[in-house]
Amino acid sequence: MSTALWIASGILAVIFIGSGLAKSTMSRDRLLATGQSGIAPFPMPVVRLTALCEIAAGIGLFAPWLTGVAPALTPAAAVGLCVVMAGAAISHASLGEPKQVAVNLGLLGVAAFVAAGRLAQLY
Q1: What is the rounded average pLDDT of the residues 4-19?
Q2: Which end of the chain, C or N, has fewer beta carbons within 10 A?
Q3: Distance between CA 55 and CA 19 in Å, rounded?
Q4: pTM
């Protein structure tokens, strides 16, 4: 189980740190051109805040557990990503993008797996 949790955490970390870096550095037009259509309804300050949350959660998926310092932050980061992905699924659904909704729900499922698995290991 631990290996599966590390793999899932690593995949999520790469995805969300990458997405967060893109959202924090690219212009709105460039983000939309690269397929980040879910940002369309939101002002850029909200997109930038989401980016920071994604980067922080991506780091939180592995750093606390790896170092043993505040390991409860790892499942908290995973739960945070569940919330972000639920919002993203709603955003993409409102834009009529069922494939993106499926991706969001898949990532939500992986994040929920990490949250539940790490919580079980804590207690």
Answers
A1: 98
A2: C
A3: 8
A4: 0.93
